[in-house]
Amino acid sequence: MPATLQTTSPPLFPVFTDLRGRRVLVVGGGSVAQRKCEALLEAGALVVIGAPELVTTLAQWVQQGRIVHLAGEFAPTWLDDVWLTIAATDDPDTNHAVVAAADTRRIWANAVDDADASRFHMPARITRGPLQVAISSGGGAPMLARLVREQLETQFDESFGVLAELLTRHRQRIRTRWPELGARRRGFARLLAGPLQALLRKRQHIAAEHAFDQALRADDVLATQGSVALVGAGPGDPGLLTLRGLRVLNEADVILHDRLVSDEVLALARRDAERISVGKLVGEGGTSQSQINALLIEHAKAGKRVVRLKGGDAFVFGRGGEELEALQAAGIVFEVVPGITAALACAAYAGIPLTHREHAQSLQLVTAHGQASLDRLDWASLATGNQTLAFYMGVSGLERIRDQLVAHGRVPSTPFAIIENGSRPEQRVIAGKLSALPELARSHKVCAPALLIVGEVAVLATRLHWFGSEALTTAGAGCDGTPAMAHIGDIAQAA
Ligand code: SAH
């Protein structure tokens, strides 16, 4: 029994054991022992627990006949007929005695929180159905193993478990179809590159079975179809990408992204994924929508897993619907992963609650892109009080937005806030009164991407600031207007 801590880890040999119907002894009656019992019961072991006393749950399990209790202090005879043992008491001497007794009988023993005394280690693990990933640091750095586990948790969603079950169910068919190992490996790669997992993720199990059958029948590589995931990348801060977005990015072979997608988000994708920028700069042509649709279809038909990555959310001023229609017409399997749209992100990062019990009972998301779209807006409805307006793509139309809102009755002292580069390190917030909107914005040379929020709530940007620099409320250099700080008014008190 080692008295001092080892400074090097033993070269451990990992195994997964089948404990069904096999006797396993857990020594200890506390909550640690309970957790070990639970894991062992899940694996189908015959659990025997040895301890003078048991915590309530363990006592209940004994009563229910789920586990067997050996009452009293540890005795080596407890190890009779046992395959494996875990010493989980809070007394190191008892734990060591269990390990020593197990050693003489050549029974594998673990002493909890005692890597040096343990003959086998319990790994950190993630479980998805029959699929298990076990992580070990050799006992030397369990916290690191736990950290790795947390990272893996985010990368493998529950569809991996369903996939593992499906493959287990069809194991014989797969072996018959590709009897030779090399062919099986290639077939498998093709199978997994196809739409199978995307379908499982969408809980479309029957379609997934069909896709599996199809892949099994297909003769050549091109017969296996790819899929497209339409993913909202959020406003820029990579922390605002969803977990599901991150997962599909990790699996992507090809990524078609917009100019609005930040480099930080793109950096999260698999290194060897092909990245295609289809960003459109206003007035600079760029890739047309029909070219984008054609690219998506072309790559998916070549069997690739394609991610169409868009700033914010793909269904909010993102033309996501048009792309899906084109994919559907081409018979390509797709899925949609929502993103945090600019209005939500900018409001949050500027400290502006979009609704307010007294001052804003509704929220309108408005596109202000170009003269034509400004002309089509229902200004009378937008000018109604008691609501918040979030204008997308409005940088060039600020004068007109102010004039129309005021002309239709919105009070000129209504607060506004412009959030430029929301959620990004270079975020700027400019806040003032509607009457001074275009002048104040011009004096600060506001650039795209910027979102305009109009409504009483906008004044809270000066009160609830928490991210980046404080809101700019006075004219910047080169300004032709007067300082335009909004009157805080009663909303600040209400907040
Ligand atoms: N689908 C996107 C919107 C695309 S339209 C979404 O859901 O957010 C592009 C407009 O979104 C920009 O002109 C700007 O008004 C707004 N926008 C996007 N990202 C932004 C950001 N980080 N900061 C401020 N505005 C942003």
Salient structural properties:
5-stranded parallel beta sheet; 18% strand; elongated; 495 residues; Cobalt-precorrin-4 Transmethylase, domain 1; alpha/beta; 4 domains; binds S-adenosyl-L-homocysteine; Rossmann fold
What percent of the residues sit in helical stretches (DSSP H or I)? 25-40%
Label the overall shape.
elongated
Compute the number of structural domains.
4
CATH architecture of the largest domain: 2-Layer Sandwich
Radius of gyration: 31 Å
What ligands can be seen in this structure?
S-adenosyl-L-homocysteine
The main β sheet shows up as: 5 strands, parallel
Mean pLDDT: 90
Count up the helices. 19
The multimeric state of the shown protein is single chain
Strand order, sheet with most strands = 3-2-1-4-5
